[in-house]
Amino acid sequence: MSTARFWVKIMCMSGHSKWATIHRAKEAKDAKKGAAFTKLAMNITVAVKQGGGVGDPEKNFRLRLAVDKAREFNMPKENIARAIEKGLGGGSGVTLEEVVYEGFLPGGAAVIIEGLTDNRARTAQQVRSLLEKGGGTLAGSGAVAYMFTQLGELVVDMTGKTEEEAELAAIDAGADEFLTEEEKLIIYCQKEQLPEVKQKLESAGYRVESAEVVMKPGTVSEVADEETKTKIETLLEQLSDLEDVSKVWSNLV
C-alpha cells in the first residue's frame, strides 16, 4: 500500500463513529422485525423536503438514495409513493416540519437527532426526557454541529476482493476517505457525488450495501468505562426508536 493511501485510511479511521456500526446492525435487525418500513418511509418524506419539495427521484439525489434503500428492504411501491406524497404535503393534511436537536450523552459524547414532526413541542419533550433519563443533556443549536461534517457514505461488500483492490476501486470511483471494517469497505465522498461514486463502484463489479448522506464526526469521543458505553448505546437506540426521529448521529468511538 502506498504512503498516500495509508494516510487516507488512517485519517478516516480516526473519525469513524462506533454508532455508525451499531446503527447499521440495528437497521438490519429492525428490517427483520418489519419495523424498518416506518423509518424508511420517514426518510423518503424527509428527503423530499430536504430536496426542496422535489418528488422525482431522478431530480432529487437524496430522494433517490432513500428510495433505493427502501427497495433494498423490499418496501412496496405503494408505500414509497405514499411517503413521497406525504413529503409533498398531500394525503393527511398534516403539516410536517423537519427538526434537529443537539445534545450530549453520558461521558460527554455529542449527539445529533434529526426528525420529522407535526408537533415540535411534543417531539422536543420526548427527546429531552430520554436524554435526561439516560444521563445526557439537550443543548442549544450549534452546540455540537461543528464537530460533524455532512458527507456521502457507502458501505461496500469486499467479498472475493483483496483490501488493496477494493481501496484502488474506491480511489478510482472518487472517494475522499475510506476504511475497512471486517469484509466491508466504508467510503466517504462529497454528498453531491454520492450517486456517481455508487454507480462507478457497481460498474466495477462491487455490491454497494448502502449509500446515504451522513453526519461524519471530525472530533471524536472515547468512553473507557464499559458500563457507560452500554448506557450510551441503550440511549442511542431509544432515541432512534422514537416515532418522530429519522436519524441519530454520534461521535462515540
The helix fraction, in percent, is 40-55%
Spans of at least 5 consecutive residues whose pLDDT stays below 50 are 1-15
The class by helix and strand makeup works out as alpha+beta
Looking at CATH, which topology of the largest domain would you report? Alpha-Beta Plaits
Number of beta-strand segments: 8
CATH architecture of the largest domain: 2-Layer Sandwich
Order of helices and strands: HHHHHEEHEEHEEHEHE
**Lateral strand order in the biggest sheet:** 3-1-2-8
- Helix count equals 9
Please report which band the strand proportion falls in: under 5%, 5-15%, 15-25%, 25-35%, 35-45% or over 45%: 15-25%
The pLDDT mean sits at 85
The global form is globular
Radius of gyration: 18 Å
Structural write-up:
- The longest helix is centred in the first third of the chain and has 16 residues.
- The strands form two sheets. The chain has a four-stranded antiparallel beta sheet with strand order 3-1-2-8, sandwiched between helices.
- The protein is globular, with a radius of gyration of 18 Å.
- The chain is α+β, with helices and mostly antiparallel strands and 253 residues long.
- The two termini are 25 Å apart.
- The chain has three domains: 87 residues, Alpha-Beta Plaits, CATH 3.30.70; 66 residues, Integrase, N-terminal zinc-binding domain (Arc Repressor Mutant, subunit A), CATH 1.10.10; 80 residues, 2-Layer Sandwich (Alpha-Beta Plaits), CATH 3.30.70.
- The protein is built from nine helices and eight strands.
- A hairpin with a 2-residue loop joins strand 5 and strand 6.
- Helix 3 packs across helix 5 and helix 7 crosses helix 8.
